[in-house]
Design a protein that fits this description.
13% strand; three-stranded antiparallel beta sheet; alpha+beta; 2 domains; 41% helix; binds zinc ion; two-stranded antiparallel ribbon
């Protein structure tokens, strides 16, 4: 398991972007203006803009503006479905058939911990 933050997503963005649109299966989308974006930048232009940013400090909204939507900087908790700033990511089990792992927020961990505590206190009461 590992902690994933919005900043991690931002810092990995150019690499993720390139593998999505310029990878082995994405070449046809390089130098393309994608539909449904708020700007008219091509995927390649977006990549070069992302590469020109200081990804350690750039704001999320600036990144979202360049991309044209906010889906690339979102983290959603698998359990409560809320969009959060950070999650603990659990890898899918090696033999899993449909697994995609799980991203669990601090709030849900808190709830889980309380379930454990309640369970333990009932046993000792
Ligand atoms: Zn949650």
């Amino acid at each position: 398991m590992k902690l994933i933050t919005v900043r991690d997503l931002i810092q990995q963005l150019p690499e993720r972007w390139r593998s999505q649109y310029d990878g082995p299966h994405g070449n046809e989308y390089w130098n393309t203006v994608l539909e449904g974006r708020k700007n008219n930048l091509t995927t390649a232009q977006i990549y070069h803009k992302l590469m020109s940013l200081d990804l350690k400090i750039v704001s999320r909204s600036e990144v979202d503006d360049i991309i044209g939507n906010d889906t690339w900087t979102q983290i959603q908790c698998t359990e409560c479905q809320e969009y959060v700033e950070e999650v603990i990511h659990f890898e899918e089990p090696p033999m899993s058939i449909e697994g995609i792992g799980a991203d669990i927020c601090l709030n849900c961990f808190d709830k889980a911990l309380n379930l454990w505590k309640d369970c333990k206190s009932e046993k000792t009461a």
